[in-house]
Amino acid sequence: MSLKILTLDYSTKSTGYALFIGKDLKKFGVIEFGSKKVYKKYPFGSLRKLTDMATQIKLKVDEFIPDIIIIEEINRGIGRIQQKILNGGHFILLELLKDYEDKLIYIDSNGRTGWRGKLGLIFSEDDKNANKRAKESGKKRKAVDWKVLAERYVNKYYKLNLDVKTHAEHSDICDAICLGMAYLNL
């Protein structure tokens, strides 16, 4: 019997997910938390939003009933309040997933043991030159970032047409798929 593996790329706006059965990618998508509901300001509005988000993620987990749940570990480097909200969201989600405690695995994105390193995602010289040109022309965003590298990897391996530049939700999906691919050593 093949294991059912659900991967989650959690963020405060949306969560990408991918479902693998064994090494086969079966489903992927995004759970969005748009502005459908108005939340009051920080901190209690954020608490209500995070609770609603965790509830939606829990519904997806319960729909799939996975054998393993892989969640991307939190990265550092964002603003203090945003980091606090993201950390809080992870803990609220954990509270709702406590029935799955023995099935949860956290994986870093960066470093030797992170999913990007395990998949061998690196910036080529062309990528570095494109980023240099973008910076010199005054653009605030890099031409090629980690999201683009994940998109390339997923599209090549699974012959998909995800596009992180024109569809923001595709970056969450690509990261969720890459989490599973790194875990499965694909």
Description:
The protein is an alpha/beta fold. The chain has a single domain, classed as Nucleotidyltransferase, domain 5, CATH 3.30.420.10. It is built from six helices and five strands, in the order E-E-E-H-E-H-E-H-H-H-H. The longest helix has 21 residues, at about 45-65. The model has no long low-confidence stretch (mean pLDDT about 90).
- Average pLDDT, all residues: 91
Element-level helix/strand string = EEEHEHEHHHH
Largest sheet: 5 strands, mixed
Kindly state the number of beta strands: 5
Using only C-alpha atoms, the radius of gyration works out to 17 Å
CATH topology: Nucleotidyltransferase, domain 5
Strand content: 15-25%
CATH architectural category = 2-Layer Sandwich
Number of helices: 6
Classify the secondary structure makeup into a structural class.
alpha/beta
Number of domains: 1
CATH superfamily: Ribonuclease H-like superfamily/Ribonuclease H
* Overall geometry: globular
Kindly report how far apart the N and C termini lie. Answer: 19 Å
